Amino acid sequence: MTDSATTGHSFKHFTEKLNTENFATWRREMFTALSYLNLDQYILKEKDKITSKTDYDEKAKQTTNLIRMHLDGENFSRFVDDDLEEYKPKELWDSICQHYATKSLENAAKIMEKLTTYDFSVGDTFSTIKDFRSTFQLFIEVTAKKFDKTTVEALWIFWILIKLPTSLALFKTLKFSVFGDSKATFSMSTFLSELERELLRQAEPTATANALAVTNNQVKSNQPKQGNNGQRRKRRVCENGVHNPETSHSAENCHQLHPELAIAYHQAALDRINGAGINPKSGLSVNRAVTDAIVLDSGASGHYLRKKEYFNTFTPIDSAVFGANGASIPIVGVGKAVIHTASGPLEIAEAYLAPDLEIVRLYSGTCWYLGTCWYLGTC
Protein backbone atom coordinates (compact mmCIF):
# COMPACT_ATOMS: atom_id res chain seq x y z
CA MET A 1 0.00 0.00 0.00
CA THR A 2 1.35 3.48 -0.87
CA ASP A 3 1.83 6.31 1.64
CA SER A 4 -1.17 8.14 0.27
CA ALA A 5 -3.42 5.12 0.40
CA THR A 6 -5.10 6.09 3.65
CA THR A 7 -6.02 9.48 2.18
CA GLY A 8 -7.92 7.86 -0.65
CA HIS A 9 -5.73 9.18 -3.48
CA SER A 10 -4.29 5.78 -4.42
CA PHE A 11 -4.58 2.18 -3.34
CA LYS A 12 -2.51 -0.98 -3.59
CA HIS A 13 -3.65 -4.35 -2.29
CA PHE A 14 -1.89 -5.72 0.77
CA THR A 15 -2.40 -9.30 -0.37
CA GLU A 16 -4.29 -11.32 -2.96
CA LYS A 17 -8.05 -11.07 -2.84
CA LEU A 18 -9.74 -13.76 -0.78
CA ASN A 19 -10.78 -16.79 -2.81
CA THR A 20 -11.71 -20.37 -1.99
CA GLU A 21 -8.06 -21.46 -1.76
CA ASN A 22 -6.09 -18.82 0.14
CA PHE A 23 -7.97 -18.03 3.36
CA ALA A 24 -5.12 -18.95 5.73
CA THR A 25 -2.65 -16.64 4.01
CA TRP A 26 -5.29 -13.96 3.42
CA ARG A 27 -6.31 -13.82 7.08
CA ARG A 28 -2.72 -13.58 8.31
CA GLU A 29 -1.67 -10.86 5.88
CA MET A 30 -4.94 -8.94 6.12
CA PHE A 31 -4.79 -8.86 9.90
CA THR A 32 -1.16 -7.73 9.74
CA ALA A 33 -2.10 -4.88 7.40
CA LEU A 34 -4.96 -3.74 9.62
CA SER A 35 -2.69 -3.89 12.67
CA TYR A 36 -0.09 -1.82 10.83
CA LEU A 37 -2.75 0.82 10.19
CA ASN A 38 -3.86 0.56 13.85
CA LEU A 39 -7.28 -0.66 12.74
CA ASP A 40 -7.16 -4.15 14.25
CA GLN A 41 -9.33 -3.19 17.23
CA TYR A 42 -12.23 -2.55 14.85
CA ILE A 43 -12.35 -6.24 13.86
CA LEU A 44 -11.62 -7.57 17.36
CA LYS A 45 -13.84 -5.46 19.62
CA GLU A 46 -17.44 -4.38 19.68
CA LYS A 47 -18.14 -0.67 19.28
CA ASP A 48 -18.93 -0.13 22.96
CA LYS A 49 -15.59 -1.66 24.01
CA ILE A 50 -13.38 0.53 21.82
CA THR A 51 -11.62 3.15 23.93
CA SER A 52 -11.64 6.04 21.47
CA LYS A 53 -15.01 6.62 19.84
CA THR A 54 -14.47 10.13 18.52
CA ASP A 55 -13.58 8.93 15.02
CA TYR A 56 -15.23 5.51 15.19
CA ASP A 57 -17.45 5.97 12.14
CA GLU A 58 -14.53 7.07 9.98
CA LYS A 59 -12.27 4.21 11.12
CA ALA A 60 -15.05 1.62 10.84
CA LYS A 61 -15.72 2.75 7.28
CA GLN A 62 -12.03 2.59 6.39
CA THR A 63 -11.63 -0.89 7.94
CA THR A 64 -14.74 -2.27 6.25
CA ASN A 65 -13.74 -0.98 2.83
CA LEU A 66 -10.21 -2.35 3.17
CA ILE A 67 -11.64 -5.81 3.81
CA ARG A 68 -14.16 -5.47 0.99
CA MET A 69 -11.45 -4.48 -1.47
CA HIS A 70 -9.63 -7.71 -0.66
CA LEU A 71 -12.55 -10.00 -1.56
CA ASP A 72 -13.01 -11.62 -4.94
CA GLY A 73 -16.39 -11.42 -6.67
CA GLU A 74 -17.79 -14.61 -5.14
CA ASN A 75 -16.83 -13.67 -1.59
CA PHE A 76 -17.97 -10.08 -2.03
CA SER A 77 -21.43 -11.33 -2.95
CA ARG A 78 -21.40 -13.80 -0.06
CA PHE A 79 -20.33 -11.47 2.76
CA VAL A 80 -21.28 -7.91 1.73
CA ASP A 81 -24.90 -6.83 2.21
CA ASP A 82 -26.82 -4.88 -0.39
CA ASP A 83 -26.58 -1.79 1.80
CA LEU A 84 -23.06 -0.70 0.88
CA GLU A 85 -23.28 2.33 3.16
CA GLU A 86 -23.48 0.16 6.27
CA TYR A 87 -20.04 -0.34 7.83
CA LYS A 88 -19.68 -3.10 10.43
CA PRO A 89 -16.05 -4.29 10.23
CA LYS A 90 -16.17 -6.80 13.12
CA GLU A 91 -19.35 -8.41 11.86
CA LEU A 92 -17.85 -8.70 8.36
CA TRP A 93 -14.57 -10.14 9.66
CA ASP A 94 -16.29 -12.65 11.92
CA SER A 95 -18.58 -13.89 9.16
CA ILE A 96 -15.59 -14.52 6.86
CA CYS A 97 -13.62 -16.38 9.54
CA GLN A 98 -16.61 -18.44 10.61
CA HIS A 99 -17.26 -19.48 7.02
CA TYR A 100 -13.70 -20.65 6.30
CA ALA A 101 -12.50 -21.69 9.76
CA THR A 102 -15.58 -23.32 11.23
CA LYS A 103 -14.59 -26.45 13.13
CA SER A 104 -16.37 -28.88 10.83
CA LEU A 105 -15.29 -32.04 9.06
CA GLU A 106 -16.30 -30.48 5.75
CA ASN A 107 -13.85 -27.62 6.22
CA ALA A 108 -11.21 -30.05 7.47
CA ALA A 109 -11.61 -32.14 4.31
CA LYS A 110 -11.26 -29.08 2.07
CA ILE A 111 -8.10 -27.94 3.85
CA MET A 112 -6.67 -31.46 3.81
CA GLU A 113 -7.24 -31.60 0.06
CA LYS A 114 -5.33 -28.34 -0.33
CA LEU A 115 -2.45 -29.62 1.81
CA THR A 116 -1.98 -32.56 -0.57
CA THR A 117 -1.46 -30.18 -3.51
CA TYR A 118 1.79 -28.73 -2.19
CA ASP A 119 4.84 -29.94 -4.13
CA PHE A 120 8.16 -29.54 -2.31
CA SER A 121 10.23 -30.73 -5.29
CA VAL A 122 9.47 -27.93 -7.77
CA GLY A 123 9.51 -24.15 -7.76
CA ASP A 124 10.40 -22.01 -4.75
CA THR A 125 10.57 -24.47 -1.87
CA PHE A 126 10.73 -21.68 0.72
CA SER A 127 7.48 -20.22 -0.61
CA THR A 128 5.91 -23.69 -0.56
CA ILE A 129 6.95 -24.16 3.08
CA LYS A 130 5.53 -20.75 4.00
CA ASP A 131 2.14 -21.48 2.41
CA PHE A 132 2.03 -25.01 3.79
CA ARG A 133 2.77 -23.75 7.30
CA SER A 134 -0.09 -21.25 7.14
CA THR A 135 -2.57 -23.76 5.70
CA PHE A 136 -1.55 -26.42 8.21
CA GLN A 137 -2.12 -24.02 11.11
CA LEU A 138 -5.63 -23.47 9.79
CA PHE A 139 -6.10 -27.24 9.55
CA ILE A 140 -5.07 -27.63 13.20
CA GLU A 141 -7.49 -24.85 14.14
CA VAL A 142 -10.39 -26.42 12.23
CA THR A 143 -9.74 -29.94 13.56
CA ALA A 144 -9.23 -28.89 17.19
CA LYS A 145 -10.98 -31.29 19.61
CA LYS A 146 -11.75 -33.62 16.69
CA PHE A 147 -8.33 -35.12 15.99
CA ASP A 148 -5.31 -35.63 18.24
CA LYS A 149 -2.89 -32.80 17.39
CA THR A 150 0.29 -34.86 17.90
CA THR A 151 -0.95 -37.64 15.64
CA VAL A 152 -2.00 -35.16 12.95
CA GLU A 153 1.39 -33.44 13.02
CA ALA A 154 3.26 -36.75 12.89
CA LEU A 155 1.27 -38.02 9.91
CA TRP A 156 1.79 -34.82 7.91
CA ILE A 157 5.49 -34.69 8.77
CA PHE A 158 5.89 -38.17 7.30
CA TRP A 159 3.86 -37.10 4.26
CA ILE A 160 6.28 -34.21 3.64
CA LEU A 161 9.32 -36.47 4.11
CA ILE A 162 8.00 -38.83 1.44
CA LYS A 163 7.44 -35.91 -0.95
CA LEU A 164 10.89 -34.32 -0.53
CA PRO A 165 13.20 -34.44 -3.60
CA THR A 166 16.29 -36.66 -3.84
CA SER A 167 18.54 -33.68 -3.07
CA LEU A 168 17.25 -33.92 0.51
CA ALA A 169 17.76 -37.69 0.81
CA LEU A 170 20.26 -37.30 3.66
CA PHE A 171 17.89 -35.02 5.54
CA LYS A 172 15.13 -37.60 5.08
CA THR A 173 17.37 -40.40 6.34
CA LEU A 174 18.24 -38.44 9.46
CA LYS A 175 14.63 -37.56 10.21
CA PHE A 176 13.38 -41.12 9.73
CA SER A 177 16.11 -42.27 12.12
CA VAL A 178 15.24 -39.63 14.73
CA PHE A 179 11.50 -40.23 14.51
CA GLY A 180 12.08 -43.96 14.84
CA ASP A 181 13.02 -43.41 18.48
CA SER A 182 10.19 -44.23 20.88
CA LYS A 183 10.87 -40.96 22.71
CA ALA A 184 10.72 -38.81 19.57
CA THR A 185 8.44 -35.77 19.64
CA PHE A 186 6.60 -34.40 16.62
CA SER A 187 6.20 -30.69 15.95
CA MET A 188 5.33 -29.40 12.49
CA SER A 189 6.63 -25.93 13.33
CA THR A 190 10.01 -27.31 14.43
CA PHE A 191 10.19 -29.69 11.48
CA LEU A 192 9.50 -26.98 8.88
CA SER A 193 12.08 -24.68 10.51
CA GLU A 194 14.68 -27.47 10.35
CA LEU A 195 13.80 -28.07 6.70
CA GLU A 196 14.29 -24.37 5.94
CA ARG A 197 17.68 -24.40 7.70
CA GLU A 198 18.73 -27.44 5.67
CA LEU A 199 17.76 -25.69 2.43
CA LEU A 200 19.69 -22.58 3.48
CA ARG A 201 22.72 -24.70 4.35
CA GLN A 202 22.68 -26.38 0.95
CA ALA A 203 22.39 -22.98 -0.74
CA GLU A 204 25.48 -21.54 0.96
CA PRO A 205 28.25 -20.83 -1.53
CA THR A 206 31.29 -23.07 -1.28
CA ALA A 207 34.48 -21.33 -0.26
CA THR A 208 37.37 -21.26 -2.67
CA ALA A 209 39.40 -24.45 -2.33
CA ASN A 210 42.80 -24.18 -0.64
CA ALA A 211 45.91 -26.06 -1.68
CA LEU A 212 46.10 -29.53 -0.15
CA ALA A 213 49.48 -31.20 0.17
CA VAL A 214 51.13 -29.99 -3.01
CA THR A 215 51.45 -26.83 -5.03
CA ASN A 216 49.98 -26.46 -8.47
CA ASN A 217 53.38 -27.18 -9.98
CA GLN A 218 53.62 -30.44 -8.09
CA VAL A 219 50.14 -31.40 -9.24
CA LYS A 220 51.11 -30.84 -12.85
CA SER A 221 54.18 -33.04 -12.45
CA ASN A 222 52.12 -35.83 -10.89
CA GLN A 223 49.24 -36.18 -13.30
CA PRO A 224 46.54 -38.73 -12.36
CA LYS A 225 45.97 -41.90 -14.29
CA GLN A 226 44.95 -41.36 -17.90
CA GLY A 227 43.22 -43.54 -20.43
CA ASN A 228 44.47 -44.48 -23.85
CA ASN A 229 43.17 -41.23 -25.29
CA GLY A 230 45.17 -39.14 -22.82
CA GLN A 231 42.04 -37.91 -21.03
CA ARG A 232 41.25 -38.19 -17.33
CA ARG A 233 39.10 -41.22 -16.57
CA LYS A 234 35.58 -39.90 -16.09
CA ARG A 235 33.68 -41.29 -13.15
CA ARG A 236 30.33 -42.75 -14.17
CA VAL A 237 27.57 -41.67 -11.78
CA CYS A 238 23.82 -41.31 -11.68
CA GLU A 239 22.51 -37.83 -10.88
CA ASN A 240 19.46 -35.55 -10.98
CA GLY A 241 17.10 -38.50 -10.61
CA VAL A 242 18.35 -40.17 -13.81
CA HIS A 243 20.03 -43.58 -14.04
CA ASN A 244 23.29 -43.78 -15.99
CA PRO A 245 23.37 -47.14 -17.82
CA GLU A 246 27.20 -46.99 -17.90
CA THR A 247 27.40 -47.48 -14.13
CA SER A 248 27.99 -50.89 -12.58
CA HIS A 249 24.55 -51.15 -10.96
CA SER A 250 21.17 -51.82 -12.55
CA ALA A 251 18.28 -49.38 -12.84
CA GLU A 252 16.38 -51.41 -10.24
CA ASN A 253 19.17 -50.74 -7.70
CA CYS A 254 19.72 -47.09 -8.63
CA HIS A 255 19.34 -44.75 -5.66
CA GLN A 256 18.64 -41.82 -7.96
CA LEU A 257 15.62 -43.59 -9.46
CA HIS A 258 14.57 -45.13 -6.17
CA PRO A 259 15.33 -42.74 -3.24
CA GLU A 260 13.70 -45.19 -0.84
CA LEU A 261 16.60 -47.58 -1.51
CA ALA A 262 19.08 -44.91 -0.41
CA ILE A 263 17.13 -44.36 2.79
CA ALA A 264 17.02 -48.09 3.46
CA TYR A 265 20.74 -48.42 2.68
CA HIS A 266 21.81 -45.71 5.13
CA GLN A 267 19.40 -46.92 7.78
CA ALA A 268 20.81 -50.44 7.44
CA ALA A 269 24.31 -49.02 7.92
CA LEU A 270 23.20 -47.32 11.13
CA ASP A 271 21.56 -50.54 12.29
CA ARG A 272 24.79 -52.47 11.68
CA ILE A 273 26.72 -50.02 13.83
CA ASN A 274 24.14 -50.22 16.60
CA GLY A 275 24.09 -54.02 16.30
CA ALA A 276 27.85 -54.14 16.74
CA GLY A 277 27.44 -52.74 20.25
CA ILE A 278 29.21 -49.45 19.60
CA ASN A 279 28.44 -46.64 22.00
CA PRO A 280 27.29 -43.75 19.78
CA LYS A 281 29.21 -41.31 21.97
CA SER A 282 32.47 -43.12 21.21
CA GLY A 283 31.61 -44.26 17.71
CA LEU A 284 34.61 -42.48 16.25
CA SER A 285 37.12 -44.44 18.33
CA VAL A 286 36.14 -48.06 17.90
CA ASN A 287 38.91 -50.63 18.36
CA ARG A 288 37.69 -53.31 15.99
CA ALA A 289 36.67 -53.49 12.35
CA VAL A 290 33.02 -52.69 11.58
CA THR A 291 31.84 -52.88 7.97
CA ASP A 292 30.48 -49.57 6.62
CA ALA A 293 31.21 -47.64 9.83
CA ILE A 294 32.49 -44.09 9.93
CA VAL A 295 35.98 -43.78 11.38
CA LEU A 296 37.69 -40.46 10.74
CA ASP A 297 41.25 -39.69 11.77
CA SER A 298 41.09 -36.42 13.72
CA GLY A 299 44.74 -35.79 12.93
CA ALA A 300 44.33 -36.05 9.16
CA SER A 301 45.14 -33.07 6.95
CA GLY A 302 41.65 -33.16 5.47
CA HIS A 303 38.52 -35.23 4.98
CA TYR A 304 38.59 -37.21 1.75
CA LEU A 305 35.44 -38.91 0.46
CA ARG A 306 35.09 -41.14 -2.58
CA LYS A 307 31.32 -40.66 -3.13
CA LYS A 308 29.92 -37.45 -4.55
CA GLU A 309 26.50 -38.23 -3.09
CA TYR A 310 27.70 -37.08 0.34
CA PHE A 311 28.30 -33.51 -0.89
CA ASN A 312 25.70 -30.79 -0.42
CA THR A 313 27.81 -28.20 -2.25
CA PHE A 314 30.50 -29.03 -4.75
CA THR A 315 33.17 -27.13 -6.69
CA PRO A 316 35.39 -28.98 -9.21
CA ILE A 317 39.14 -28.60 -8.64
CA ASP A 318 42.29 -30.17 -10.05
CA SER A 319 44.65 -31.13 -7.25
CA ALA A 320 46.11 -34.13 -5.44
CA VAL A 321 47.34 -35.40 -2.09
CA PHE A 322 50.05 -37.91 -1.23
CA GLY A 323 49.32 -41.07 0.76
CA ALA A 324 51.67 -42.57 3.33
CA ASN A 325 53.22 -44.76 0.64
CA GLY A 326 54.06 -41.74 -1.51
CA ALA A 327 51.39 -42.39 -4.14
CA SER A 328 49.54 -39.40 -5.58
CA ILE A 329 45.76 -39.46 -5.08
CA PRO A 330 43.79 -37.17 -7.43
CA ILE A 331 41.38 -34.67 -5.84
CA VAL A 332 38.61 -33.67 -8.24
CA GLY A 333 36.36 -31.48 -6.08
CA VAL A 334 35.72 -29.77 -2.76
CA GLY A 335 32.59 -28.81 -0.84
CA LYS A 336 30.44 -29.31 2.23
CA ALA A 337 29.36 -32.86 3.03
CA VAL A 338 27.16 -34.74 5.50
CA ILE A 339 27.65 -38.36 6.54
CA HIS A 340 25.20 -40.11 8.83
CA THR A 341 26.50 -42.00 11.84
CA ALA A 342 24.85 -43.86 14.69
CA SER A 343 25.04 -40.72 16.83
CA GLY A 344 23.59 -38.42 14.17
CA PRO A 345 24.79 -36.49 11.12
CA LEU A 346 28.49 -35.75 10.77
CA GLU A 347 28.83 -32.39 9.03
CA ILE A 348 32.11 -31.71 7.24
CA ALA A 349 32.65 -28.04 6.45
CA GLU A 350 35.32 -28.78 3.84
CA ALA A 351 35.61 -32.23 2.32
CA TYR A 352 37.51 -33.37 -0.77
CA LEU A 353 36.26 -35.78 -3.40
CA ALA A 354 38.85 -38.48 -4.18
CA PRO A 355 37.15 -41.16 -6.33
CA ASP A 356 40.32 -43.27 -6.59
CA LEU A 357 40.63 -43.86 -2.84
CA GLU A 358 40.67 -47.52 -1.87
CA ILE A 359 38.37 -48.79 0.91
CA VAL A 360 40.57 -50.14 3.68
CA ARG A 361 39.12 -52.99 5.78
CA LEU A 362 41.62 -52.90 8.66
CA TYR A 363 41.58 -52.36 12.38
CA SER A 364 41.45 -48.70 13.36
CA GLY A 365 45.02 -48.61 14.67
CA THR A 366 46.48 -49.89 11.42
CA CYS A 367 44.11 -47.71 9.45
CA TRP A 368 45.27 -44.55 11.19
CA TYR A 369 48.88 -45.59 10.82
CA LEU A 370 48.45 -45.60 7.07
CA GLY A 371 46.83 -42.18 7.22
CA THR A 372 43.57 -43.28 5.63
CA CYS A 373 39.90 -43.39 6.63
CA TRP A 374 36.94 -45.74 6.61
CA TYR A 375 33.93 -44.63 4.59
CA LEU A 376 30.22 -45.33 4.67
CA GLY A 377 29.19 -47.75 1.95
CA THR A 378 30.77 -48.70 -1.30
CA CYS A 379 30.59 -47.27 -4.80
Low-confidence stretches: 1-10, 206-220, 281-299, 360-379
Strand-residue proportion: 5-15%
| Overall 3D form | elongated
Q: Give the helix/strand class.
A: alpha+beta
Determine the fraction of residues in helical runs and give it as a percent range. 25-40%
Count of alpha and pi helical runs: 13
* Main sheet record: 4 strands, mixed
Q: Over all CA atoms, what is the radius of gyration?
A: 29 Å
Taken in chain order, the helices and strands follow as HHHHHHHHHHHHEEEEH
What strand order characterises the main sheet? 1-4-3-2
Mean pLDDT: 74
Q: What is the first-to-last residue Cα distance?
A: 57 Å
Number of E-type strands: 4
Question: Please, how many domains?
Answer: 3
Give me the secondary-structure topology.
Elements: H1 23-36, H2 41-44, H3 56-68, H4 73-79, H5 89-101, H6 105-115, H7 125-142, H8 149-163, H9 169-179, H10 188-203, H11 216-221, H12 259-275, E1 303-305, E2 315-322, E3 328-341, E4 344-353, H13 364-369
Parallel strand pairs: 1-4
Antiparallel strand pairs: 2-3, 3-4
Features:
single chain, 3 domains, 4-stranded mixed beta sheet, 4 strands, 9% strand, elongated
